[in-house]
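worker-3 :: picked Alpha-L-rhamnosidase
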Amino acid sequence: MFLLLVLLVAISADGYAQSPQEVEVIQHNELTREYISPHRVLWQSGNVENTDQLLKAGNGQADLTNASICVLKNDETGKPASILLDFGKELHGGLEIVTGMWSPGNTTRNIRVRFGESASEAMAEIGEKGAANDHAIRDFDMQVPWLGKIQVGESGFRFVRIDLLDADAELHLKEVRAIFTYRDIPYLGSFKSSDERLNEIWKTGAYTVHLNMQEYLWDGIKRDRLVWVGDLHPEVATVNTVFGYNEVVPKSLDLARDVTPLPGWMSGISTYSMWWIILHQDWYMHHGDLEYLKQQQPYLSGLVKQIAAKIGPDGKELMDGNRFLDWPSSEDPEAVHAGLQAMAIWSLSTAATLSEIMGDDETRQIAERAVSNLKKYIPKMGQSKQAAALMALTDLVPATQANTQVLAVAGAKNFSTFYGYYMLQAMAKAGNYEGALDVIRSYWGAMLDLGATTFWEDFNLDWLPNASRIDELVPDGKKDIHGDYGDYCYVGFRHSLCHGWASGPTAWLTEHVLGIKVTAPGSKQISITPHLGDLEYAEGTFPTPYGLVYVKHTKQSDGQVKSEIKAPKEVNIVNGSAH
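worker-3 :: tokens ->
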């Protein structure tokens, strides 16, 4: 961040300058712009020449030589000239187009630009299979200058299609580069094991959240480019695991608080206000900023009273607002009720702990009484993996029971990208580490098999049969994994293929395979209890306010695990029993 001091000179009615007024303008210099050339030309149509020029590293500068130019030409006999560019991985940002000289000179050209998270999305028309321009304009017509450059667009994308719209005309392209906009921050946390698939999943989850760390912490870089507090919980777990402290987290938590005066629910959803409480405990445990925590006390106290007032005398939750856990569970009212019961216990237990830390005895007592009341009633778990996970994590049912009867049934079937994190956490609590690893490989790994470079808003194993990859045009007879699937608010191409709430395996692998868990505020104490499952070794780093903790766990011939641990002197390491 830097400060820009501006002197404003006031002008009186008679035109004479009055005394200057010093005004402080705060600007944030937190995002970096990097220019990336296409990885390949995936498709072209009509009269297009010298596409290899666009794959070369550019300098962003038009020049008079016109020596090496990609030419798109429309004439009366051919198809409109079009190209589809693949930038190799999901990006957030826009597009820079550098043009050459065509005849007649000094005239603009009209083009159409389409961004896509999949190749098929970049080829679609607005309204086709859910293709839309909401949240981010990803399909538009524009003019480009003769012998100049222009920068346009802001969305999440990997593919860009360009069509020349003018009849009987040429378009000369010297460069078409993605403007990659991101936070230039180091990946402090790391994970490496004997299973390269798990390694790639860990990195992909980290990159998914990294892209969403824009001015605020979003859940999606194409859609939704918003701060959804429930979505923040797995995202912040990944931020803590990979990047350590970053101002985007408190900035986003404060935004959610400030735009939601009580008695409102954050995002209109009662559980999202509950997640706000839980997030503050996670943030305090990792970073130990008591002053920041105390700033939340007035709002937290009011929120606790509001949640407690929505509990019946029999201990049943009676939450109003949008009763929501995640989309796949939204049509199962019994699952939602069970999840809300568990979330009320989790959030109020957390609020009691935070209130004790802040010396707020009144709020602590209200929260503790409410939790005691809630625990008198145990809802039906049913077969919902969302409900089973939350009930196991809050001890409404034994974790082993939830795992055996629901979570481990049929492997990754009925997992979801958001609540999959809590399903994995509950499986770990039940001791089913190998089962959780298998789910990570089969569920999140399947997205990688389909060409993903970031994790998706939703995914269902039922979509896999005969599905095409997102980095190819759909072959005849195959299903379009992007355009043909999706549900609820994310039908077809509206489906976000970069959603931070899907990053749970990154945090989970560090916590349970590396075994790193913060057990005292400010990361001053960390327990290390690795669970290698079927892995031969796992190693990695974990950021703390005092520096990195490094661990390496190696399975010996007798099945025992040998651990090497290095930590800053300020961090007390407590070793558990390895498996």
